[in-house]
Amino acid sequence: MMLKTFAEYPPRKRVGLLAILLGIIAAFVGDPTGGVTKRVNLKELAMIASTSNDKVDAKDLAKWIIEGKFDYRLVDLRKQEEYEKYNIPTSECIPVSQLLNSDLMRNEKIILYADDEFTAAQGWFILKANDYKGVYVLEGGLQCWKDKILFPKLRIDASPEEKIEFQKMAEISKFFGGQPQTGATVAKQTAEMPKLKAPVKVKLKKSRGKRKREGC
Amino acid sequence: MTAPFYKFGYFNDEVSLIIAFVIGLFFGFVLERGGFGSGRMLAAQFYFTDMRVFKVMFTAIVTAMIGLFYFAWMGFLDLSLVYYGDTYLLPQIVGGLILGIGFVIGGYCPGTSGVAIATGKLDAIFYALGGFFGIFVFGEMFPLLKDFFYSTHMGKVNLPQFFHVSYGFVLLVVILVAIAGFTLVEWGEKVVAKKRTENK
């Protein structure tokens, strides 16, 4: 017999053979990083960022919710506790760290929001870099949602057009359980703003469940 | 638990220093036992008389690579979070050459000179002093060298990314290169030994 058995080789050659074997297996078992490292098309991202096409206006979002549009998924990136205190109706809570483990699909229209635009933008980048196609950010974040939708303000010296616009916004605001604020009450109301979040909560929870089932 | 522990916040900065100290002690011990504490042994690499250090070093690299690859593959380690520095191609080539020349002349690399100082070797003490002097000179000259120091920046790039191949393939290539290298240097050792006996 020309071929020696494995045990007959000296130890150094056995170790060498083992290393080659492990190397050959390694070449075929795939990526050890689990695909978390990505190549990103920076130019494409910069192009999208330079336009505002990746942002959704709070008023548009409010209209979609009222109309019962379901062609998007609204994602709240804040912590679970904050989400439970208040969230925008039809939203679901997915913290940034969980974004890639969530059931969000790459072909879905996804609207992200957090307290400010910054956190949402971080989530936007993570999803975009991971080949999610339609990712959007709520312009101005939750703060803007509060200012524009929940507590719209009418200045005392408002023009007639502004007053008509305010009437519309007031309707929307009431739908979401907010309080439109007119001239005299503006200053007083602002201090109480955080407390006023509560009324919407109950309604949201239900819609959230519905939303979740749809996602599956 | 998944590694790297530090990145996942399993311990803080202070504890990381203690762990580094303990690992450093073991590292120094292993280097000394591997023959890395002797300037003669280290310099022998460049004269092909005794390639022990080369073999130990390359074996360590291959062992670590296989270990990291399979740990990552099994999910014990998140390879994407393991730190390595940015690539500045030209300055790093020049830096490597300077280090190599210093290595041949002095008989140590910065780490092994520390090991040799621990065993009280005088040449290592002078080597380390020279190293510190070099650091000082470099620091003073830095404004002049700055442009070159930051040139040819390639960002964080590793071999699989650079050559667009899989991690596993790079691992296989390094293993084959190592084994070819071992065979080559052992042949070199024999040739040099033969010449020496002939010259005597």
Task: Give the oligomeric state.
Answer: heterodimer
Spell the H/E element sequence of chain A.
HHEHEHEEHEHEHEHH
Q: Give the domain tally of chain B.
A: 2
Specify the number of helices of chain A: 9
- Measured between the Cα atoms of the first and last residue of chain A, the distance is 62 Å
DSSP strand count of chain A: 7
Strand order of the largest sheet of chain B: 1-2
Strand content of chain A: 5-15%
CATH C-level class of the largest domain in chain A is Alpha Beta
> What global shape of chain A is seen?
elongated
- Count of discrete domains of chain A: 2
Instruction: For the largest sheet of chain A, list the strands in their spatial order.
Output: 1-5-4-2-3
Largest sheet composition of chain A = 5 strands, parallel
**Per CATH, which architecture of the largest domain in chain A?**
3-Layer(aba) Sandwich
Largest interface: A-B, 18 and 24 residues
Task: Provide the residue-averaged pLDDT of chain B.
Answer: 89
CATH topology description of the largest domain in chain A: Oxidized Rhodanese, domain 1
Number of beta strands of chain B = 2
Order of helices and strands of chain B: HHHEHHHEHH
Proportion of helical residues of chain B? over 70%
Question: Poorly predicted ranges of chain A (pLDDT <50, ≥5 residues)?
Answer: 187-216
Could you explain the architecture of this structure?
- With 216 residues, chain A is α/β, with parallel strands linked by helices.
- Chain A folds into 2 domains: 53-141 and 200-215, Oxidized Rhodanese, domain 1; 147-196, no CATH class.
- Chain A is built from 9 helices and 7 strands; from the N terminus they run ααβαβαββαβαβαβαα.
- Chain A has helices at residues 11-29, 42-50, 58-67, 80-85, 117-129, 141-150, 160-175, 186-192, 201-215; strands spanning 55-56, 73-76, 91-93, 109-113, 134-138, 153-154, 181-182.
- Chain A has a 5-stranded parallel β-sheet with strand order 1-5-4-2-3. A two-stranded parallel sheet of chain A has the order 6-7.
- In chain A, strand 6 (153-154), helix 7 (160-175) and strand 7 form a beta-alpha-beta unit.
- Chain B has 200 residues and is mainly alpha-helical.
- Chain B folds into 2 domains: 1-80 and 171-200, no CATH class; 85-157, no CATH class.
- Chain B has 8 helices and 2 strands; from the N terminus they run αααβαααβαα.
- Chain B has helices at residues 13-33, 39-44, 52-74, 89-106, 110-118, 122-149, 159-163, 167-199; strands spanning 87-88, 153-155.
- In chain B, strands 1-2 form a two-stranded antiparallel ribbon.
- The radius of gyration of chain B is 20 Å and the shape is globular.
